Amino acid sequence: MRENLSEVIVGAVVLLVAGGFLAYAAQATGIGRSTAGYDVTASFRSAEGVSPGTDIRLAGVKIGTVTGLRLNPETYRADAVFTFQDGVSVPDDSSAVVASEGLLGGTYIEIMPGGSFDALIPGAEIIDTQGSVSLLQLLLQYVGGSSETAQ
Q1: How far apart, in whole angstroms, are the C-alpha atoms of residue 113 and residue 94?
Q2: Does any domain span residue 99?
Q3: DSSP 45
Q4: Together in a domain, 28 and 47
Q5: Is residue 106 part of a domain?
Q6: Which domain holds residue 22?
Q7: Considering its fold, how many domains does the chain have in total?
Q8: Which residues does 116 contact at the CB level (< 8 Å), separation at least 6?
Q9: Region at 150 (left for phi over 0; alpha for psi -120 to 50; beta for the rest)
Q10: pLDDT tens profile 79-119
Q11: pTM above the 0.85 mark?
């Protein structure tokens, strides 16, 4: 009887720890969060590293999420849909930049606020965008470009 009680207690502790891990994972990935907000679009030359669920940050603070990403067959650009949190007012002349947290870090969209007094409205488009820069392309350009600068 004592053995069965200890097995039940150990099993309950294992289930509680597993539940804690699931709750932490849901909180860290944003699963189950309310998606209240407004949508804005942007078009990037390169959206490498960006996918639905990617953070959108302003001054390092998360203000939204990428909710859609598709290739535009007419312009061959990546069209993204952002969902900004309700209550966040972004100037309508702001720019969107695909940024990286470091060499091994993740990718996010950085909003660089403009100086306009008018805010983006639902359905608006961010015109000024800068796509991602490939680290491999930069290294190849640096190595290959050294002979060009000697001229």
Answers
A1: 4
A2: yes
A3: S
A4: no
A5: yes
A6: 1-33
A7: 2
A8: 91, 92, 93
A9: alpha
A10: 999 999 988 899 999 999 998 887 677 889 999 999 989 99
A11: no
| DSSP SS3 for 122 | coil
**Cβ contact 58:90 at 8 Å:** yes
Report the sign of the C-alpha dihedral through residues 46, 48, 52, 58, in that order: negative
Instruction: Please tell me the total number of residues recorded for the chain in this structure.
Output: 151
Which residues lie below 8 Å from residue 151, measured CB to CB, with a gap of 6+? none
Nearest to 131, CA basis, from 10, 11, 42: 42
Looking at the chain, the number of H-run helices and the number of E-run strands are 2, 8
Q: Of the candidates 93, 98, 148, 100, which has an alpha carbon nearest to the alpha carbon of residue 126?
A: 93
What tokens were used for 39?
């949508």
Q: Left if phi > 0, otherwise alpha if psi is -120 to 50, otherwise beta: which for 32?
A: left
Residues 13, 54 share a domain: no
What is the distance between the alpha carbons of residues 102 and 110, in angstroms, rounded to a whole number? 14
DSSP 36: -
